[in-house]
Amino acid sequence: MAESKNYIPALRYDWLTRIYDPVLQFTMPERGFKSALITQMNLQAGHKVLDFGCGTLTLSMIAAQSNPATHFFGVDIDEKILTLASAKIKNTGLAVQAQLYDGQTLPYPDNHFDRAMSSLVFHHLNERQKYAALSEIYRVLKPTGELHIADFGKPSNYAQRVGFLVVQLLDGFETTQDSVKDILPLALKQASFSEVTETTYFNTMVGTVRLLRVVKKAGSVL
Q1: What is the pTM of this model?
Q2: What domains are defined for the chain?
Q3: What digits encode the pLDDT tens for the residues 167-181?
């Protein structure tokens, strides 16, 4: 991971950020797995939802279109991708807000959100960053609040493993090897989440995207 930024841009290089959306749409069934993630969240009117690593806000926008009485709050560490997100959300009338995240402390109080969601973010994080991010998400979730993640996991077959090499070459082996080892479910358990469940998975041109659902333990008030 580039220490000067302390994060990996969406396509590793800043100059590729502007083409992130079309690349994603070409290489994987983005609408399919993001819609599945939204469905499994069982969103209700009045829910407050954190979109962790919101990128260009595609996930929040899809969710907001079908859940207009739900409030979405996106955070991302990449200022350039948030500029793209701002242009994308402008004049849509959707209840989505986005702000810059410092990579350490989420800008929200304890026990604030009913749901948190994240799409294709955790494979960018090294082990230390994964645990730090999960600790912060746990903090801002309400007791019995839920975290829903769509991200690369253990490849489902040899072809998926070969396809995922493209992601590893682009994003670096240090962080992405955790996906091959399927580290994320274990990290979630060690971060005190309960009911860690893989709900489904999607094979793509560049690896297997697995959907996870976890719950903050009842009575966990920070």
Answers
A1: 0.87
A2: 46-194 (3.40.50.150)
A3: 999 888 989 999 999
